[in-house]
Amino acid sequence: MLKLDSEDINWRSNTIILLDGAPYHTSDSTLELMEGLRIPALYTGPHSYDAVPAELLFAAFKADDINPSKVPQGKR
Question: 63: which residues sit within 8 A by CB, 6+ positions away?
Answer without folding.
Answer: 70, 73
